[in-house]
Amino acid sequence: MGVTLSIIIGLAIIAVGAFCQSSSYVPINRIKSWSWESYWLVQGVFAWLLFPLLGALLAVPQGESLFAMYAAYPKESLLSILFGVLWGVGGLTFGLSMRYLGVALGQSIALGLCSGLGAILGPVFTGKTGDLTTAIWVGVVVTLIGIAIIGIAGGMKAAALPEEEKKKAVKDFNFGKGLAVAVLSGVMSACFSIGLSFGADLQWPETKPIFASLPATLLVTFGGFLTNAVYCLLQNRKNKTFGDYRQGALWGNNLIFCALAGLLWYSQFFGLSLGKGFLEGKSAVLLTFSWCILMALNVTFSNVWGIVLKEWKGVSKKTIIVLLAGLAVLIFSTFLPQLI
Q1: What's the per-residue H, E or C state across the chain?
Q2: pTM of the full predicted structure?
Q3: pLDDT, tens digit, for every residue of 57-70?
């Protein structure tokens, strides 16, 4: 397979994963009568435990043991889990940013910060700063510029629309609170990339490159599950919503849509692993920049969904032009490092 074709296939797979992740909040709208903390916990079982475990098992050669490998690398495994716990704070507040800002604006701000910081901090924490070439730095800067432009469009939307119109698109819309939560989410979410960097050695020589990062992904998502599970159970107790789990008539519907949301969410990291497998040995720059590419595409597709869900309905033509300009910059940033 030629170098160019491998790169195209790798980027296409990452793009498919990004589209799936950006679509993962759509099934949640079909969940009935459960509080936020209840459905967030249940979808998390699928997104952060079940599907990552199934993915990690694909990387295990015959006759080997996934958990024996973790035991053989205790430091790397514990660090991956630790940064997963920190990422869990980002994942938790990520859901809240959707609640206060909507799918488009919430994901744009949170994932934008996650994108830039994740691409840089992974090599920094693991001492591989040599991977941060000029092309990577330029790509990160351009990505953040695209995010900033989208953020400006969001600010224009918040300033122009009357309160009742904001509430129609996003029920709990609160720009100030949502902005603070989204910034915290973006910073903490970058810990996922750091966790993956520490878990880079958690693989076997026989493992296919397309599955190589999946064992580390499981540890990071497990750490994130711990954070989210503790918070959601505390919220269940505080809000007296443990009764949600006893509504037997709702379990069939809600379990299906929680599982679908979890599958779509996990697809981004499954796609990232597969895509990096095609980039391995073909483009060192894109391989290092792959995290930033995933997050930039997540933002792009989330704003497409925001338009579909009419979160930008009623805004001025000027605001839409600013939004589209930001999306164009993000798409350009995906390919920019390869052009330098």
Answers
A1: CCHHHHHHHHHHHHHHHHHHHHCCCCHHHHCCCCCHHHHHHHHHHHHHHHHHHHHHHCCCCCCCCHHHHHHHCHHHHHHHHHHHHHHHHHHHHHHHHHHHHCHHHHHHHHHHHHHHHHHHHHHHHCCCHHHCCHHHHHHHHHHHHHHHHHHHHHHHHHHHCCHHHHHHHCCCCCHHHHHHHHHHHHHHHCHHHHHHHHCCCCCCCCCCHHHCCHHHHHHHHHHHHHHHHHHHHHHHHHHCCHHHHHCHHHHHHHHHHHHHHHHHHHHHHHHHHHHHHHHCCCCHHHHHHHHHHHHHHHHHHHHHHHHHCCCCCCCCHHHHHHHHHHHHHHHHHHHHHHHC
A2: 0.81
A3: 999 999 899 999 99
